[in-house]
Amino acid sequence: MIRFEQVGKRYPNGHVGLHELSFHVQRGEFLFVTGHSGAGKSTLLRLLLAMERPSSGKLLLAGQDLSRISNAQIPFLRRQIGVVFQNHQLLFDRTVFDNAALPLQILGLNKREIGQRVMTALERVSLKDKALQYPSDLSTGQQQRVGIARAVVHRPALLLADEPTGNLDPRLAAEIMGVFEDINRLGTTVLIASHDLALIARMRHRMLTLQRGRLIGDGEATR
Ligand SMILES: Nc1ncnc2c1ncn2[C@@H]1O[C@H](COP(=O)(O)OP(=O)(O)OP(=O)(O)O)[C@@H](O)[C@H]1O
Ligand SMILES: [Mg+2]
């Protein structure tokens, strides 16, 4: 699914965000990327989204070479990916349903198809009964779950999340991680950037550890 081969990222100001990073991710895996602030976690995710280009090396996603992808191909690439942010970035003047429907409206699907897929996505995050409410009526954890529903509504092969539990208390954070595990069980590859080591250690998934842009660990998280 993902293949980093000696990928380097040097920002225009000369700062090196990633140094010769190499690792592979199989389809269907669940893994964390961890490391201190500035280690390069978000840089790694932005490379996968083609928001940034590698400065060196080769980066493959589902067989597509992201080091050489044209701008015209980027929208097609992103249809294979769902993204969850720390601040879920919901639209507060739209219902839960409409928030989750956004990616499908952009794809131009018909109303019936959108209705079915949105309700399936909301069911996956246990929010079917909140479809017609507004984000302001929901708890923080529920809002984050709407963000996850929106990220998976177009059935991406890969789900990326950047500090998705950063604003949540430990109990809610564990609950949200459980939602990611449920989605992974249905076949989606899940990659989560997080520095919540205590939570990650309990989950026993693969963990890549970055330190100042270098990969210094790759294995099951342990305490
Ligand atoms: N656009 C940019 N221009 C220059 N340097 C950048 C840019 N974006 C990130 N960096 C630098 O690259 C390094 C990695 O940043 P990145 O955002 O990937 O870290 P991170 O691991 O996500 O940190 P955090 O936990 O704080 O989110 C940092 O030193 C950062 O200052
Ligand atoms: Mg970051």
UniProtKB/TrEMBL annotation:
<comment type="function">
    <text>Part of the ABC transporter FtsEX involved in cellular division. Important for assembly or stability of the septal ring.</text>
</comment>
<dbReference type="InterPro" id="IPR005286">
    <property type="entry name" value="Cell_div_FtsE"/>
</dbReference>
<dbReference type="GO" id="GO:0005524">
    <property type="term" value="F:ATP binding"/>
</dbReference>
<dbReference type="InterPro" id="IPR003593">
    <property type="entry name" value="AAA+_ATPase"/>
</dbReference>
<dbReference type="GO" id="GO:0051301">
    <property type="term" value="P:cell division"/>
</dbReference>
<keyword id="KW-0547">Nucleotide-binding</keyword>
<keyword id="KW-1003">Cell membrane</keyword>
<dbReference type="InterPro" id="IPR027417">
    <property type="entry name" value="P-loop_NTPase"/>
</dbReference>
<comment type="subunit">
    <text>Homodimer. Forms a membrane-associated complex with FtsX.</text>
</comment>
<dbReference type="InterPro" id="IPR003439">
    <property type="entry name" value="ABC_transporter-like_ATP-bd"/>
</dbReference>
<dbReference type="InterPro" id="IPR015854">
    <property type="entry name" value="ABC_transpr_LolD-like"/>
</dbReference>
<feature type="domain" description="ABC transporter">
    <location>
        <begin position="2"/>
        <end position="223"/>
    </location>
</feature>
<dbReference type="GO" id="GO:0016887">
    <property type="term" value="F:ATP hydrolysis activity"/>
</dbReference>
<dbReference type="GO" id="GO:0022857">
    <property type="term" value="F:transmembrane transporter activity"/>
</dbReference>
<keyword id="KW-0131">Cell cycle</keyword>
<keyword id="KW-0472">Membrane</keyword>
<keyword id="KW-0067">ATP-binding</keyword>
<comment type="similarity">
    <text>Belongs to the ABC transporter superfamily.</text>
</comment>
<dbReference type="GO" id="GO:0005886">
    <property type="term" value="C:plasma membrane"/>
</dbReference>
<protein>
    <recommendedName>
        <fullName>Cell division ATP-binding protein FtsE</fullName>
    </recommendedName>
</protein>
<dbReference type="Pfam" id="PF00005">
    <property type="entry name" value="ABC_tran"/>
</dbReference>
<keyword id="KW-0132">Cell division</keyword>
